[in-house]
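We emphasize that the prediction below concerns an isolated chain of 892 residues; any contacts that depend on oligomerization or on bound cofactors are therefore not represented. The input was used exactly as deposited, without trimming of termini.
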Amino acid sequence: MVSRPALVGRLGTARVTLVSAPAGSGKTVLLRSWVSQAALAGNVAWVSVERGERDPQRFWLSVLAALRQTAPGLALVRTVTAVPDLDGWAIVERLLADLAPLADQLWLVIDDVHELGTDQALRQLELLIMRAPPQLRFVLATRHDVRLGLHRLRLEGGLAEVREPDLRFSLAEAQELFDAAGVGLPGPAVAVLHERTEGWGAGLRLAALSLAGHPDPERFAEAFSGTERTVAEYLLAEVLDRQPEQVRRLLLRTSILERVNGELAGLLTGDDGGEQVLLDLEQAGAFVVSLDAARSWFRYHQMFAGLLRLELRRTAPGEVAGLHRAASSWLAAHGFPVEAIQHAQEARDWSLAGQLLTDHWPRLHMDRQAATHELLARFPPGVIAADAELAAMAAADELAYGSLEAAERYLDQAGHAMASVPEDRHVQARLLLGMARLGLARQRGNPVAAAEEMRRLEAPAEDPGAARAGLSEDLRAVAVVNLGMAEVLASRIDEAERHLGQGVALAQQTGRPYLEFSGRAYQSVTEVRRSAIRAAERSRQAIELAERHGWTDDPTAGVAYTMLADVLAWQGRPQEAEPWVQRAERTVRAQAEPTAAMLVRYVRGLVELGRGRYSEALAGFEAADQLARRLAARHLMVLPNRAVLVHALTCLGENERAGQYLAGLSDHDRQRGEMRVAEAALRLAEDDPPAAAGALGPVLDGSAPAVSWTWLTRAFLLEAIARDALGDQAAAGRALERALDFAERDGVILPFLLHRAPGLLQRQAGHRTAHPALIADILSLLAGSKGPAAPARGRRGPAAPHEQGGSWGDRSPRLTEPLSSSEIRVLRYLPTNLPAPQIASELFVSHNTVRTHMRNLYTKLGTHSRADTVARARALGLLAPSPYRGQATVSK
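Result of the prediction step, given as a token string:
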């Protein structure tokens, strides 16, 4: 140890101390020295973030546990039990409440903050830092800066920073280190090592350990600063060869592992005491690093581990495969299947590796799908071709990461290899093969083939007794979700909802987040036909799971991105939809997912249509149409895409081309609701309102169905425009009110931007309507503003009804202060049963922002509860009247 009082004195003095430097710079050693020298152990909570931590709940539970190990924290911080739906935001809010009365100084040290793998956890940590009581101070160690908004503290003088230049050893400190290690190194040699390592603590410590007892330290210093090969030779000769035989044997035989514990070391060496050796080496701080707070798992310095493996292959090549097999068996038995399979592959025991992979595939698929992709890539092609289960998994892998043609080749190989599958594995192999075939049919857009595979899968997937025939519960769960995903394609929505619901429930019961993620993503597709809000909620649930677990590039995530963008586009929010469309475009590949890619192009067109960029919109719809023509069968979104394609042509003034496109469709397609709406828009553009009204009749009476109810909004709006052009204002008003009825359900505004009728809307606003706030929003958007126009103070003339704060046509007193556009948006969600956090998600703002707007609404409307606010807003005409005779139930 080298005393560094200047650095120690900078720790813990400010509200937040940031120690940011690369690995091996001495951050952790410095923090431990500070705790020890300042005698703060009883008031310091220490949290080491696990490598690649993507679970905010697990991180916050470790924070609570660390705080409760301190005297002040034990008295204040309540225990929290881990449950699947426990929210990190809720934990932080509760922790802030617990620590509010904190009187004694308390430090929270978080080591390896950079390992927090989600923005959500970082935002939650930022919230804790900003709102914590002044007695709680933070010391954060990280390999690189993370987004925590610490610039505000820096401006306020509340941030102390220790960075890589500060942690570099000075020449004098390097000399002190070598002296403390008992290395009599002359000053010039120290200077050489200091220069070559640039003061990097780990490099200097490595050199010091290697120099202990060296007969020619100056020559070593020159060699250490030479090529990597020279350094390797010296490390092996001067470090490994000087170790006792027990330590040397342990280091060499366990070097095959990415991580090691005492039990596994004992298995590979045949000796007891492995854990103590590892602890001693870790305590020395050179080659071994502990990976957990209990110091039970360790890893070797990467450079040193490589040297050890090289030496093991040189000195005992015949033992390497056996060590890998032994490690594989232990890891498989202790719940580490990925590492077990990797070691079986390293041993080139392909039979063992294949059996382990197929047995654990459902879990790997649901927990970390990318692992299957990486593991399959390590099998020789001939091994896969001869194993039906491996070939079926390879086909599924190609569907996710490769091409449909390659998937078909693997399916052929799997079919030929089925005859050699043992009887006790036949059920599992058949189900794996069936799911891969189902995935191919789904992605090819072939509902006929999908239905055939679904019939084959449905019985074993839904039969609980199938587990007794060798079918695992995990495999059943994956099959059920795959059924639901295929049924979405085949327009069997009721069956899809049932199977997806079963799969999500199983995922939550068994703790399988990937399965829940897949189910939620496709639930958004089934929900969009009935409720845009519920579809968006399902999409965001899937996206949150993807971000938490690192699945944001998974093709299934592209489905969730697409459906969320679709909802936002229909709600007239193209700027908010844009980033989600971009994510979907980056994630979904047309070669592997033509049906999903078609949906992405369709939604891209919707977003551009909402922006008034008709050429770009047409390009999106035409691209979707080209992809649709490549599918094996008609997809349920083909007609909606063609309908908006016709509308884009109409907007561009290409009426003749739009008419030709319509004429080229089959009679069956032209009679569908979507195409009749498109024809009505074209007839209005041609100044033929009677023809438009005639086209809309079957849509309005329900005899010409459409994919979703959003098309009824367009149909009634076009009916209103046509009736108004024909001079029937009463019928126009009734049709417009019906269009507003449908639009109000989920805030669907896009039809009013596509078929602009500001005069009709203004006239409707002058009469009694159930939708004054919605009309105000639409008129503001049509006028080019981003939201409802704020009332102008001192303006001459009568105020607009929504500015007066009274019902349409009456003269109720005005509001004491006008509502902002953000407050109006929040107000529109208050009649729902959505709690504030979900409203925040709907509006893409924080929970606290929604709470602030709700408090403002209470003040401006003179109310004291959510229910009173809704009633008052309805009385003032700011919200539609309740659809119930009595008072509607509103969440508090």
